[in-house]
Amino acid sequence: MANQEDNFKKVISHAKEYGYVFQSSEIYDGLSAVYDYGHNGVELKKNIREYWWKAMVQLNENIVGIDAAIFMHPTTWKASGHVDAFNDPLIDNKDSKKRYRADVLIEDYVGKIDTKIEKEVKKAEKRFGDNFNKQKFIETNPRVVEYIEQGKSILSRMAKSLEKEDLADVKALIEELDIACPMSGSKNWTDVKQFNLMFGTKLGASAENAMDLYLRPETAQGIFVNFLNVQKAGRMKIPFGIAQTGKAFRNEIVARQFIFRMREFEQMEMQFFIQPGTQQEWYEHWKENRMKWHLSLGLGEENYRFHDHEKLAHYADAAADIEFRFPFGFKELEGIHSRTDFDLGSHEKYSGKKLQYFDHETNRNYVPYVLETSIGLDRMFLAVFSNSLQEEELENGTSRTVLKLPAVLAPTKAAILPLVKKDGLPEVAHEILEDLKWDFNVTYDEKDAVGRRYRRQDANGTPFCITVDHQTLEDQTVTIRYRDSMEQERVAIADLKSIIHKAVDMRTWLLKMEDQRA
Q: 242-258: per-residue pLDDT in tens?
């Protein structure tokens, strides 16, 4: 556990040092659970957003995008259920005066059980070597089976209690599991209470005439209220999807784990409108499709898993999370939800306007069912960044810190380095920069010895370093160095564009999704 915490501290420190993420309003001692993205962070974030948009919208003929406003009519949130049911179960520790989400305390307890399972598996792997059958071991080892059953039983009980709003049993479960306050070690807990997470605000020039509004807690509702607008204007036929990326706001009382849980965050959501009765096949389709998108980035298949929901929202008939192995354990990265006709049906009821689709094939009107995929852009950023940050021991006995970002997402694709700041080398380096900048985000670096510059670009996540030396003046070749392997080769300046393009082109990366399908 201590090692996990140390690794996570390194992630946070590196993110600040290299201009990826800063604490908001830091000169005023910061604002809790609010963060700013620096010059590198904003590029990485943009690249993740574009990678999602291309896969979701551009490559699907029947999916289009919108950008709905953050402010929405307040009845929207009544219809969506957020006014009455958008709550977190909170519990206070009487001694430390710290507040926690009761469900997270229980999930973290189960996370420790998962860690025990992993330790058993690793021990067995060492013992049996190449003959080790991981799946069989997990299914048959008595201790592992007991751990799995224990975890399932705890989560199942919690889900049922939360569904019934039996908050007394949630507290009882915390006490039975002997869960202590992470800060103080105290087990002196208050009762569990529900807390609504929406931020309220006002719309209007004067206080007496102002309308009570909310900052949107999710982007999905902007899609639902625009269903007919998009369907008619785009002449869309079911099945079709509407995608959106944008800011959402939640008054997280227990915000923690850096950018994993923030009060102001960005979502990438797609609502897929389907014929009632087809939801199961579309649910399976989008589960498979979204996992392939994640795996196309090469962050390691072992770092992902599906988690099927024990507790379903009242409107859902199926729900699963894609969980990622963050530095603090497996946590939700993306949700895939079969939402039935709740959303459009509810807005139809509250607005008094019909939100139906006339299906020419079946010759009938119906309220479409919805299949949702929803991913947190900030969480995706953290998944990519934390997985890519590595400390490597080198053959010469030294070590290096390297940020092995997928090249397609890296903020800067190449750094152009003149070997020395004289003899016309900077001028040639700038010519190369001027040519490449039309196609890629590139940078120029002439400060310090070239070895030190390589290390700096490694830590920055830059996939290529291009060094201009005296030979360049003779034969128009440069040395290109590859971040991940540290290998260097001599190439013609004229070939640089195609070499970089091959490594960072979204088409090349996204085609891996097709390869997995084959």
A: 999 999 999 877 667 89
Three-state SS at 153: helix
**CA proximity to 368, closest of 396, 398, 394, 338:** 338
- The predicted pLDDT at position 518 comes to 46
Lowest mean pLDDT among 29-33, 166-170, 281-285: 29-33
Yes or no: say if 408 and 51 are a contact pair by the CB < 8 Å rule: yes
Class of domain 43-74+197-386: alpha beta
CATH topology of domain 87-196: Herpes Virus-1 (3.30.40)
What would the pLDDT profile of 340-372 be if each residue is shown by its tens digit? 999 999 999 999 999 999 998 889 999 999 999
Q: Does residue 515 register a pLDDT over 80?
A: no
- 3-state class (DSSP) for residue 250: coil
Going by the annotation, the residues of the binding site for substrate are 101, 218, 265-269, 372-376
Tens digits of residue pLDDT in 474-503: 999 999 999 999 999 999 999 999 999 999
Q: Which amino acid is residue 155, in one-letter code?
A: L
Q: Does residue 39 sit in helix, strand or coil?
A: helix
Q: C-alpha dihedral over 37, 42, 44, 47, to 10 degrees?
A: 140
Query: H or E stretch including 512?
Result: helix 506-517
Give binding residues as ranges: 101, 218, 250-252, 260-269, 332-333, 372-379
Nearest to 83 by CA among 98, 73, 95, 92: 73
Q: What is the CATH number of domain 398-512?
A: 3.40.50.800
Nearest to 55 by CA among 355, 294, 365: 294
Longest Cα separation, the chain: 80
Task: Please enumerate, by residue number, every residue annotated as part of a binding site for ATP.
Answer: 250-252, 260-265, 332-333, 376-379
Task: Supply the pLDDT for residue 203.
Answer: 87
Q: Where are the domains of the chain?
A: 43-74+197-386, 87-196, 398-512
Distance CA 504, CA 82 (A): 41
Question: How far, in Å, CA of 75 to CA of 127, rounded?
Answer: 61
